[in-house]
Each structure stands twice: as C-alpha cells, then as structure tokens.
Amino acid sequence: MPLIQLVITLVVVGVILWLINSYIPMQATIKKILNVVVVIVVILWLLNVFGVLGPLSGMHVGKMHGGR
After folding, report:
1. What is the pLDDT of residues 2-54, one digit of tens each?
2. C-alpha distances in angstroms, 9 versus 19, 23, 59, 63, 66?
3. Burial tier of 9 (Cβ tally within 10 Å: 0-12, 13-18, 19+)
4. Which pLDDT band, with edges at 50, 70 and 90, does 67 fall under?
5. Which end of the chain, N or C, is less surrounded by CB atoms within 10 Å?
C-alpha cells in the first residue's frame, strides 16, 4: 500500500471520528467506547499493513468449523 494512500485513509478515519464525536449527541461512555474500538481497529489494520501480524484472514471468531 502506498504511503500516501495510508495517510489519506488515516486522515479520513480521523475526520469521521471527529465528526461523530462533535456533532452526534451520545453519552460520554459510548463515545469513549467508540473511540477505543476505532483506535484498536486502526492499530490492528496498521500492523497488518506493515506485515507485523501476518494475514488477518486466518483469524476466526465464533464456533470452530467441524465441531459439534
């Protein structure tokens, strides 16, 4: 992924999060949870982009396949 595309994506995510925090009325607790979730997702995405985590497509959430 080119560096400029990475920077543009981070700026867009930041602006969207700022708009949500500024203009959508929510409880402070919900805003904090939203901010933490977005930051964690962005960090995981960056780690994946730079190859630190390896492919995230191997991760599965929920029941194991083939189990009863």
Report:
1. 899 999 999 999 999 999 999 999 999 999 999 999 999 999 999 888 888 77
2. 15, 21, 23, 32, 38
3. middle
4. low
5. C
In three state form, how does the secondary structure of the chain look?
CCHHHHHHHHHHHHHHHHHHHHHCCCCHHHHHHHHHHHHHHHHHHHHHHCCCCCCHHHCCCCCCCCCC
**Would you state the structure tokens that stand for residue 55, as one six-digit string?**
């492919």
Which pair of structure tokens corresponds to residue 57? 């497509």
Nearest CA-CA partner of 6 in 62, 46, 40:
46
**Length, in residues, of the chain:** 68
